[in-house]
Amino acid sequence: MRARAVPVLVLTLLAPLLSLVLGVPPAQAQVVGGFDFARAEVAVTGLQVPWAMAFLPDGSALVSERGTGRVMQVRPGQAPVQVATVSGVSASGESGLLGLAVSPSYAQDGWVYAYFTSTSGDNRLVRFQLSAPQTQTVIFSGVPSATIHDGGRIAFGPDGMLYVATGDASNTANAQNLDSPAGKILRMTPTGGVPSGNPFPGSRVWSYGHRNVQGLAWDAQGRMYATEFGQNTWDEVNQIVAGRNYGWPTCEGTCSNTSFRNPIVTWTTAEASPSGLAYANGALFAAALRGQRLWVVPLTSGGGAGTPVAELQSSYGRLRAVAAGPDGWLWVATSNRDGRGTPVAQDDRIIRIPPASGGTDTSPPTAPGLPSASGTTATSTTLTWAASTDDVGVTGYDVLRATGASGGSFTQAGTSATTTYTDTGLTAGTTYRYQVRARDAAGNLSPVSGTVTVTTTTGGAQGGCTAMATTQTQWGTGYVIQPVTVANTGTSARDGWTVTFTLPAGHAVTGSWNAVLTVSGQTVTARNAAHNGTLGAGQSTTFGFQATRPSGDTSLPSGYTCA
């Protein structure tokens, strides 16, 4: 990123600034790129400099926070929940916790990948599982780091390989040096190795001559694109071809040197400073920081660019990340608390833009088939249904849930891009009813499916259970308790556990991971998550939480009991 003086144009900026103060976007958006920007909505608030988003199979998103090193799980309309903290993050300037990616085989392996600037003085890549987030394995390290130009976007390509965008780390010579991983787009296996098919034998380098790439995306034909920060004149969108040189530091923007590949789009640096990149509906979506807008870039059949259109201009401030969600909506994250923005009380936020409705597609999908339930435990159940059909195409499904065998209203429990969904965090010995409906790209909703009734198991009393808490860290106004070790001391397996404990007066839980916490007064009840409820005889699992307390108060929670 660059720090530059911005001219003050009072008349043209007055309306957008008033909109920022009030947290309300100007009414100037339109339907473009398959999304209805006039119906953009704030879905998540209270994040601290979000940098990347990656979706889990249940439709929720993981979000990295650059300065805190936290990985937050977010769902529309709900408060963010901390599920991991990446160890050894050094956050200064533009560095810190940057890219996130979820394994394409997450349902089987549970891997989450994170790229960050480390306290060891490099940029590196780790992977971990949310069931044990404190165990983080370094799979690639040694990328030069600096307070600027750290790149940081990571993504799995359609070939199943992991792509990593790096910056030149404020040393322009790195970009042309094939022996340096800086100023490159790297391609590696999910374990960090060099895959076959890379253009330079024995090297992870996929393309080079980059200044600072922070966005990666692939179109429906599998063609790769990247956003890149220029220095003083031109920002870029490039179509990435294996082994090609993109010109930095000799070229910024388009140039006549045939040794370098030219961008398909350029903008002035005041218009863009492009970071995140997404693809949907035949168009690229580039999140602009200094430009405070979302650029929509229609793609031609040959992979070139049509005329870009600016959306959300000055509506929500600086935009860092953009992703096409499994719910069919476009997700955009702000970066107003990064020291260069003007935050409002809700910042930082995630904005969701719905698929376009109306137009020529007014036919809804058919109703999904009657759901069936399987694998029901004390805290979760898996639903499966027959697919809907649509004249254009189904983009996803909404899973609706009501509590009880009858009565009550159905509310949305989650979304799925496929015909299966696992609902977690349920209460043992409770009856639920489920329905499913389908969505298409125009926003048309199908009739709901038939209703399936599910009763979770009671968890049983298969033996003893203990809970032992460890204080990981504490400060004047708060603390982190991790791990709380839950052990099955019985002789048979357990199908769920519940831990209760007492908070001192004035203390409040602000986040938790690997358990579902509810608070009544000063009593906290922690129930197992879907992935750690089953414990064999002698087995144990862990969870953790964070809490605040009055200044000067050194007391900690007590009375941990397990059932």
From TrEMBL:
Q: Which residues form the signal peptide?
A: 1-29
* Fibronectin type-III domain span: 367-459
**Gene3D superfamilies, sorted:** 2.60.40.290, Immunoglobulins, TolB, C-terminal domain
State the PROSITE patterns in the record: CBM2 (PS51173), FN3 (PS50853)
Indicate the segments annotated as coiled coil, or none if absent: none
Residues annotated as domain CBM2: 458-563
Q: Keyword Lyase on this protein?
A: no
Which keywords are on file for this protein?
A: Carbohydrate metabolism, Glycosidase, Hydrolase, Polysaccharide degradation, Signal
Pfam families, per the entry:
CBM_2 (PF00553), fn3 (PF00041), GSDH (PF07995)
Source species, domain of life? Bacteria
Give positions of region: Disordered.
352-378
| Annotated InterPro entries | 6-blade_b-propeller_TolB-like, CBD2, CBM2/CBM3_carb-bd_dom_sf, CBM2_carb-bd_dom_sf, FN3_dom, FN3_sf, Glc/Sorbosone_DH, Ig-like_fold
Q: Which PANTHER family match?
A: HEDGEHOG-INTERACTING PROTEIN (PTHR19328), HIPL1 PROTEIN (PTHR19328:SF13)
This protein is called Oxidoreductase
- The organism encoding this protein is Nonomuraea composti
